[in-house]
Design goal:
There is one protein chain. The chain has about 350 residues and is α/β, with parallel strands linked by helices. The chain has an 8-stranded mixed beta sheet with strand order 1-2-4-3-5-6-9-10, sandwiched between helices. Strands 7-8 form a two-stranded antiparallel sheet. Helix 2 links the parallel strand 3 and strand 4. Helix 3 crosses helix 4.
């Protein structure tokens, strides 16, 4: 209910509803050019639900033009950003890659979006990584999918978790990331390592939050802010300024939120997307905007990915982190690069 109210408030604050208004799309998709109905000969969307560790996972499968379940297609699993849902940027990239002939899947993380799990908005690396394994489990059994030709795309936080999943899940023949966000490093050290002096203080807060949860108290959340336009403009980083507008206004969705349980920090702050990254021996493509203030995380990760000789850092000239989510020319550049990569590696 709170998420629905928030979405309505966003619409009012933003003035006229944008073309990406989830309320105007029958599948609640929030990106330009989104599917509004399934038509013969075109990319189609198929909402599905499956079980993972006893919980319901809500996902969208996209099938390519002229899809024939009797044929065999390569498939790509798409992992969404932190706080995002399958109807936003993950859906955009899944749809665009389906246009190129792939069967794709974008699923809401467990405890998030339309997937099951209580309390809501738990954000633990082990869960997010298992989500990716779960997408592989489901999509390799989907009609028409060639299980031997599976790849992975992770966006923002989903990119960091995809690096971790691909370390051991060799069903993924290759891995790509767009605007990779190392959730553990940021939750531990702060964005651009700006909070190193408060690590122990924040760990104590997370420990207290878990203790409160386990004794029946209220679930405490981090990132649960309601900022004014003026406050958003004063945020110190492009990622956060542009992120608030993307998630709260132009591409808002009621299932999407910045908040996550404070107790999740116990897991997040001891984790890092680059731990044992040398186990990734598959072809690796990492895409990031040349002007993204998150670029340092992609550069760090690809430098540490010593287990594969087939790796590339591709910078989209002029793009910031959030602009790779929706700006048409940057998305087109990313999709073209991804298509060439996947056609070569799966």
């Amino acid at each position: 209910m709170k998420a629905t109210i928030l979405a309505a408030m966003i619409s009012v604050q933003a003035g006229e509803a944008s073309a990406e208004d989830y309320r105007k799309n029958p599948f609640t998709l929030t990106y330009a050019g989104a599917i509004t109905k399934n038509e013969p000969g075109k990319v189609n969307i198929h909402p599905v639900t499956y079980k993972l560790k006893g919980l319901d996972i809500s996902a969208n499968v996209y099938t390519p033009p002229n899809y024939d379940p009797k044929k065999k297609y390569a498939a790509i699993a798409v992992a969404h950003p932190n706080g995002g849902v399958k109807e936003q940027v993950a859906g955009l990239y899944a749809q665009r890659l389906a246009e190129k002939g792939y069967i794709t899947i974008a699923a809401d993380a467990v405890y998030q979006g339309s997937s099951g799990g209580e309390p809501r908005n738990v954000d633990k690396p082990a869960y997010r990584i298992e989500d990716i394994h779960g997408m592989a489990d489901f999509i390799t059994g989907y009609p028409g999918v060639d299980a031997a030709r599976l790849s992975l795309l992770g966006i923002c936080g989903g990119g960091g978790y995809s690096l971790a999943a691909a370390q051991t899940d060799k069903r993924f023949k290759s891995i790509a990331t767009v605007s990779m966000f190392n959730s553990g490093r940021v939750r531990r050290n702060g964005y651009q390592d700006s909070q190193l002096d408060t690590i122990q203080q924040r760990l104590r807060q997370a420990s207290s939050a878990r203790a409160q949860e386990k004794t029946g108290g209220n679930v405490l959340y981090a990132g649960d802010a309601n900022l004014t336009d003026e406050q958003i403009a004063k945020l110190p980083f492009d990622l956060y300024r542009q992120g608030y507008y993307y998630y709260w206004k132009t591409h808002a969705h009621p299932g999407s939120t910045f908040k996550y349980t404070m107790s999740s920090l116990l897991d997040l702050m001891r984790w890092d997307a680059t731990d044992q990254i040398e186990l990734v021996n598959q072809p690796l493509l990492m895409i990031a905007g040349s002007k993204a203030d998150s670029l340092y995380m992609t550069e760090d990760a690809i430098g540490k990915a010593t287990g594969t000789k087939d790796k590339e850092l591709f910078k989209i000239d002029g793009a910031t982190h959030i602009e790779t989510y929706w700006v048409p020319k940057y998305v087109n550049t990313a999709v073209d690069k991804l298509t060439a990569f996947y056609s070569r590696t799966i």
